[in-house]
Task: inverse folding
C-alpha cells in the first residue's frame, strides 16, 4: 500500500482540488483521508455517505464541584493558564482556557476538582460517490487536538486500506508547519506539494519543505496558477531541481477550478478540459512512482 | 468599547489563502494614508508570517521569545517517578534510573517541577521564536509600525507565540492607535487566541463552496467567543451570491467586497501592495474602512 500526502504550506493554492481529483481518478483503488483539520472541505466534492462514526476523545478539562469547593484558592495559585476564576464564594474553571494539565486537582485540599475526558470530535468512515472509502473527522469547536486527530484519521485510513486491499491512501494534508502537518506527512511514501508562483507561495513552500526534509520522503511539486507570475514559476522550477523535487505538473490560472468546486465536482471530472487532462496525467505519474 | 487601549481589529478566515494578508496589509496602508489613523499591524500568522513580503520596512526591534520547560537535574534526583506520573501530556518519561523530558509535548504547566519532591526539575528558558518590529514607510512619506511573530520551524507553540506577540504590540500602542491583527487561518486555538483579543473580527471569504463552508465554521467558532463579526468577500464575482446568501441567513454584516481581478492576482504574486495601484481595490478598502469607522468609532467615514 502506498500513502500519498498532498500539502501546500500556504492555503488556497488548490491542494484540495488536486486531492479530490486524485480521489476521483483512483476510485476504489484508494482510501482517502481528509487530514486538513482546519478546513476539511473535501467532503463538499466527494459527497461521502457515512458508514461508521465514532467519538474521538482527547484531552482533559478540570471541573470544580461548587458544592465541595472550600474556596481556598489553592487551585488558582498553581494554574499557569489563568483558567480558574472566583465565582461567588467558590471557584470555577474557564473551559476555553483550561489546558487539562491536571495540576489543580493535585493541590485541592478537599478533592473538589475532577479531570473530565473531553470529546474532541467524531471520526467517520464513509463511502464517497467516487467509490473510495473515505476517513474524515469533524472536530468540535474550540478543540485543539488537531495533531492527534490527524494521527487517528491516518491510522483508521491505513486499517481501511488493508481491509479493502486498496493500493493507495490519498491524504489531503494539513496547512502550516506545525504538529498537524507533521502528523500528515509522517510514514507516507510520497509528498505532493501544491504551490503557486507568488512570493507568499514560495515562502511557505520553503518553510514546509524544511519539515518534509526531516522525514526524507520523496517529494513532487505541482505549480498551480503558473501564468500569474512566469518569473516566480521559473524560480520555483529551479528551486525544485536544486532540492531534488520532481516537477509533477503545472496548471495555468483557470476559473474552472472554482466552477468545479461550486458545482460539487472535482477538476478531473470537468470532461474535455485542459485541467482535467492535467489531473489525469498527474495521477498517471503518481501511480508509477 | 474600551477606548483607552486602542481599537483592535482581527482579520481572519476559516481557510487559508482567501486574502487575509492582502486585506491586512492594504487596509493598514489605507487607514494610515487615507484616514490618517495611527496604525499598527501585527502579523500573528506565526507559522507563516507573510505580511513582510508586501511591506518593506526598517527593523526597529528584535527580541527572542522563550517559554519555560523543565530540565532534569540528575545530581539531585531521587528517582521518585512523581514527574512522569503527574504529567498529562507524556512529556516526561521515567525509566527507573533516569528522567527524559520531551519539550515538544510540554505545555508548561509546572506540575512536574513544583511537585518534584527533590526539586530536580527546575523550569528553564526554551526559545520558541522571535518578535520583530519594523517601521514601514509608504511612498508618500506616511509611516506605520508592523510587528511580526515568527515561530521557529517545527515548534508547536503557536498559541504562546501569538500571546507574546499580542502582548508586545498592545504594549506599544497608545489609546489613539488602531491595531490590526493578521490572524492565523483556521478555526482552532491559534485563530481563537488572536480573535479573543480583538474588538471586532473581519472574516475574509471567497465566494466558493469551500469558502462558504470554512466561513461558517469560523462564524460558529467566533460565536462561542461572543465576538462581533463581519465578512469581507474577496475575489467577488458579479452574480455569485453564495456568501451573500449565507450572511443574510446568519445575520452577519458584509463590510466590503474586493472584486475578482487578474491584475490584483498579478500584483499580489510580486508582493506588491494593491493600495494605490488597483482602483477597484481602493474602493473596496474605503468601503471596509467606512464600515469599521461606523462600527467602532460611531462616526461617518473619513
Result:
Amino acid at each position: 500500500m502506498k500513502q500519498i500526502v498532498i500539502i501546500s504550506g500556504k492555503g488556497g493554492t488548490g491542494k484540495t482540488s488536486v486531492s479530490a481529483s486524485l480521489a476521483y481518478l483512483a476510485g476504489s483503488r484508494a482510501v482517502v483521508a481528509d487530514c486538513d483539520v482546519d478546513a476539511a472541505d473535501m467532503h463538499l466534492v466527494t459527497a461521502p455517505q457515512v458508514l461508521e462514526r465514532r467519538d474521538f476523545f482527547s484531552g482533559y478539562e478540570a471541573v470544580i464541584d461548587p458544592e465541595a469547593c472550600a474556596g481556598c484558592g489553592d487551585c488558582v495559585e498553581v494554574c499557569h493558564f489563568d483558567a480558574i476564576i472566583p465565582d461567588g464564594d467558590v471557584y470555577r474553571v474557564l473551559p476555553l482556557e483550561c489546558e487539562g494539565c491536571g495540576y489543580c486537582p493535585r493541590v485541592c485540599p478537599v478533592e473538589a476538582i475532577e479531570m473530565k475526558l473531553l470529546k474532541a470530535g467524531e471520526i467517520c468512515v464513509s463511502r464517497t460517490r467516487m467509490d473510495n472509502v473515505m476517513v474524515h473527522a469533524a472536530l468540535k469547536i474550540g478543540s485543539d487536538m488537531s495533531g492527534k486527530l490527524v494521527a487517528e484519521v491516518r491510522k483508521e485510513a491505513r486499517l481501511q486500506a488493508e481491509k479493502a486491499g486498496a493500493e493507495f491512501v490519498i491524504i489531503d494534508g494539513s496547512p502550516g508547519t506545525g504538529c498537524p502537518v507533521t502528523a500528515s506527512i509522517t510514514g507516507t511514501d510520497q509528498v505532493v506539494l501544491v504551490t503557486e508562483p507568488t512570493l507568499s507561495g514560495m515562502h511557505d513552500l520553503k518553510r514546509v519543505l524544511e519539515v518534509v526534509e526531516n522525514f526524507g520522503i520523496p517529494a513532487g511539486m505541482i505549480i498551480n496558477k503558473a501564468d500569474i507570475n512566469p518569473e516566480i514559476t521559473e524560480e520555483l522550477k529551479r528551486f525544485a531541481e536544486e532540492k531534488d523535487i520532481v516537477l509533477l505538473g503545472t496548471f495555468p490560472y483557470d476559473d474552472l477550478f472554482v466552477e468545479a468546486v461550486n458545482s460539487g465536482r472535482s477538476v478531473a471530472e470537468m470532461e474535455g478540459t485542459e485541467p482535467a487532462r492535467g489531473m489525469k496525467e498527474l495521477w498517471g505519474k503518481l501511480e508509477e512512482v | 468599547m474600551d477606548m483607552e487601549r486602542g481599537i483592535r481589529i482581527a482579520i481572519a478566515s476559516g481557510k487559508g489563502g482567501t486574502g487575509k494578508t492582502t486585506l491586512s496589509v492594504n487596509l493598514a496602508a489605507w487607514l494610515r494614508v487615507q484616514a490618517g489613523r495611527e496604525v499598527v499591524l501585527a502579523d500573528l500568522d506565526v507559522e507563516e508570517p507573510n505580511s513582510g513580503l508586501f511591506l518593506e520596512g526598517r527593523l526597529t526591534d528584535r527580541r527572542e521569545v522563550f517559554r519555560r520547560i523543565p530540565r532534569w537535574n540528575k545530581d539531585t534526583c531521587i528517582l521518585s517517578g512523581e514527574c512522569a506520573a503527574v504529567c498529562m501530556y507524556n512529556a516526561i518519561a521515567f525509566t527507573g534510573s533516569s528522567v527524559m523530558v520531551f519539550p515538544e509535548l510540554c505545555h508548561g504547566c509546572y506540575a512536574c517541577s513544583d511537585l518534584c519532591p527533590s526539586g530536580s526539575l527546575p523550569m528553564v528558558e526554551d526559545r520558541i521564536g522571535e518578535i520583530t518590529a519594523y517601521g514601514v514607510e509608504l511612498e508618500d512619506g506616511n509611516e506605520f509600525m508592523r510587528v511580526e511573530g515568527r515561530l521557529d520551524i517545527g515548534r508547536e507553540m503557536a498559541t504562546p507565540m501569538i500571546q507574546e506577540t499580542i502582548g508586545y504590540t498592545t504594549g506599544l500602542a497608545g489609546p489613539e492607535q488602531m491595531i490590526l491583527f493578521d490572524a492565523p487561518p483556521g478555526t482552532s486555538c491559534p485563530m481563537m487566541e488572536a480573535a479573543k483579543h480583538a474588538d471586532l473580527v473581519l472574516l475574509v471569504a471567497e465566494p466558493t463552496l469551500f469558502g462558504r463552508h470554512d466561513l461558517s465554521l469560523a462564524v460558529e467558532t467566533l460565536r462561542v467567543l461572543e465576538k462581533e463579526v463581519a465578512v469581507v468577500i474577496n475575489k467577488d464575482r458579479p452574480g455569485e451570491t453564495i456568501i451573500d446568501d449565507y450572511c443574510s441567513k446568519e445575520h452577519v454584516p458584509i463590510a466590503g467586497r474586493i472584486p475578482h481581478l487578474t491584475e490584483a492576482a498579478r500584483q499580489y504574486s510580486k508582493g506588491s501592495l494593491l493600495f494605490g495601484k488597483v482602483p477597484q481595490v481602493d474602493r473596496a478598502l474605503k468601503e471596509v474602512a467606512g464600515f469599521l469607522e461606523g462600527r467602532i468609532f460611531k462616526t461617518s467615514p473619513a
The mean pLDDT of chain A is 93. Chain A touches chain B through 56 residues (CB under 8 Å). Residues 2-47+128-288 of chain A form a domain with the Rossmann fold fold (CATH 3.40.50.300).
